[in-house]
Amino acid sequence: MLFISDIHGCLPALERALEWADKLNCRHLILLGDILNHGPRNPVPDGYNPPRVAERLNEHAERILAVRGNCDSEVDQMLCQFPLLADYSNMLLGKQRAFITHGHLWNDTKLPPLARGDIFCFGHTHIPMARWQEGRLMFNPGSVTLPKGGYAPSLGHFDGTHLTVMGLDGNTIEQAEINEY
């Protein structure tokens, strides 16, 4: 599965992410919020085209699990043919529970109730992360559109054993084994 966060309406960034989904044979796309709008604190990205981003994602609606970001709204839901307004979701990655959220309500400094060995997946900060902290795997794929902290645009990949943050150039930024704990 492929984790994409903070698209912010940028069509070229989404297209590159979808190319990686194909190359990696990803069955599912996990969208961690801030899908269509650039938001009032962000610059308008090159290639900004929210309606076309919605159309491209709708082509993959049956593959998508999405959560709402702080820049997502009911108007965005009107364009998208997949649910995107949940603040969080839970899923299994292997045998481990993964809590999926954008990161503006729950984040690495304000965690939901998680057991040791659980995985916390979030976006929002635009800073990639894949590491074990205090018995929990913290995973943030960064942003495909507006990376921060000097990082390249990035996304996440789960191969059944590892959660990897990789740049859109294919280089690994961070990686953690999910069965490590």
Computed Rg: 15 Å
Strand content: 25-35%
Reported CATH architecture: 4-Layer Sandwich
**Biggest sheet: strands, sense, closure?**
6 strands, mixed
Distance between the termini: 21 Å
Structural class by secondary-structure content? alpha/beta
CATH-assigned fold name = Purple Acid Phosphatase, chain A, domain 2
Major sheet: order of its strands?
A: 3-2-1-9-10-11
Low-confidence stretches: none
Q: What is the CATH class name?
A: Alpha Beta
- Average pLDDT over all residues: 96
* Total count of helical runs of at least 4 residues: 3
Helix content: 10-25%
Order of secondary-structure elements: EHEHEHEEEEEEEE
Strand segment count:
11
Shape: globular
Instruction: Give the name of the CATH superfamily.
Output: Metallo-dependent phosphatases
Tell me the domain tally: 1
